[in-house]
Amino acid sequence: MYTPAQLQEVIENAIQNINYPAQPEKLYAPIRYIMSMGGKRIRPVLTLMAADLFEADILKAIPAALAIETFHNFTLVHDDIMDNAPLRRGKQTVHEKWGINNAILSGDVMMVEANKQLSMLHSAILKDALETFNATARGVCEGQQLDMEFEQQAIVSIPEYINMIRLKTAVLLGGAMKLGAQVAGADHNEAEQLYQFGLNLGIAFQLQDDILDVYGDPEKFGKQVGGDIIANKKTLLLLKLKELASAEDLRKLEAQSTNKDHTEKVKHITGLYNAYNIPELAGIEMRNYADKAFDALNAVKVPESRKSELLELADLLMSREH
Amino acid sequence: MYTPAQLQEVIENAIQNINYPAQPEKLYAPIRYIMSMGGKRIRPVLTLMAADLFEADILKAIPAALAIETFHNFTLVHDDIMDNAPLRRGKQTVHEKWGINNAILSGDVMMVEANKQLSMLHSAILKDALETFNATARGVCEGQQLDMEFEQQAIVSIPEYINMIRLKTAVLLGGAMKLGAQVAGADHNEAEQLYQFGLNLGIAFQLQDDILDVYGDPEKFGKQVGGDIIANKKTLLLLKLKELASAEDLRKLEAQSTNKDHTEKVKHITGLYNAYNIPELAGIEMRNYADKAFDALNAVKVPESRKSELLELADLLMSREH
């Protein structure tokens, strides 16, 4: 069995070995640029871990893992255009460096590259893999659409919010795991359990992100604590507060939303969160999804010993302070 | 055997029957909008004609035809953003109607939809079909990139220009035909001949477009005659003129490029074209590619009688005055 760190290295090497065409240089340079930015490669690692769980040769799952990682990076390129983001992992975003038109088109060709990778899978499982991949890709686009719409929308319910993060973030983790299971020849039920594992872990992870944005260790968090508060971002915390707060506190919240003094704003709104036990309530919601994830993994019929790496990775993801 | 008109109807019906999800409404409405704008549906018709050529059940080729048409429409949505185009077929473009971000994302999900369509093909030919489709999609993106670069580039050679239109326009016609042949179970050589037929016909068609933009019947052309001249567009005519013109005539051409009086500009530059026999020379180049197309179709080993509809369609395309 492989550790996540070993699989990360396998993925990095595989990415280095992708041969994009040399010309047109401006079409392919952005792909090399974003694909080599690094990151934890969590999605393709999950694909390989799922294959490894069923004792498959992980090399067989590499095309699926690369398809997932390429697709993920394609969404970063296009999302950064839509979000008007200047930086990604501390570096210029693709559209900042090459212009918006170039970023649209390089993103498009990344989607083609992802499909090319996927099509290298064995014929016998190709149709199932395509179905998983396309359903996943569709979900991610739907999630991004909802995310953009929610920014403009006055009222968003918590179920609507969870549905958005499910689509935007979690289905890709679920899809990554399911693809690995399919490559390994797991039966439909086992593949579905792994999908549920990835999906619910993804939701839990995103909810944890909302909590850490306010309550994370500023030393370890790596970005500004309270960034979501400053941006008036509709997170689980904010939506829960809106559900529970008195009319007077809602007025205070509203008044803070336009406060230009960011330190004051974060202090006041965090105070409201504390007064309504929001971090505890959000923690319960988060653990609810984490539990669902672990239940799904429990239900997978392979020897328990084979699940150790996945369990450890999930524990690690869910106990981070940053 | 089916006529192009019959197949057009088959395609229209199949497009009407595609079930896109209802939600998020703003993600899928643009897809319905652009897919129902009509047009000649030439690409999916070619896919079905290629399948019909080999006496295959054309219904089997519908997923491939829809994938091609959906991909084509996806490129229109994204190209219109890049070209800043307000209108398409006399109607608002998707980004004008729904905004740029929405248009990027709806385009992205169209690419997913195209892949979903394709994945419905029979398992036995799926891998070959994916290879054709992805190579085609990659080529189209490369062509769009070159087209954008050529706009900024002072010098473009005729071979570079032909390579650009080959990628941007012609590979999709070639790919459409090859997919039809693959669905029909044609062998590799026959599929390749049909690819060459579509590819060369596509190049000839685009070169004819360049000629008709200046020399087409204004009554029938449907757009402003001389539009390419007014926009200083690098067409085969302009590139040939730049190759052949004397230094003095090149200076005249240069002076006209900034002429704000469009009627005068079209008149003067058309005069230069005529002085250097550019329409005849461009016509020779165009027929050269048309001949290659017909040679490729000739080489396909099916009874000549089965080729009649394709020959007629190609004749029709190449003898238009508008």
Automatic annotation (TrEMBL), chains A, B:
Keyword Magnesium in record: yes
Molecular function via GO: metal ion binding; prenyltransferase activity
A GO biological process held by the record: isoprenoid biosynthetic process
Keywords for this protein: Magnesium, Metal-binding, Transferase
Cofactor(s) this protein requires: Mg(2+)
Pfam families: polyprenyl_synt
InterPro entries in the record: Isoprenoid_synthase_dom_sf, Polyprenyl_synt, Polyprenyl_synt_CS
The keyword Metal-binding is assigned to this record: yes
Family: Belongs to the FPP/GGPP synthase family.
Entry protein name: Polyprenyl synthetase
Record lineage: Bacteria, Pseudomonadati, Bacteroidota, Sphingobacteriia, Sphingobacteriales
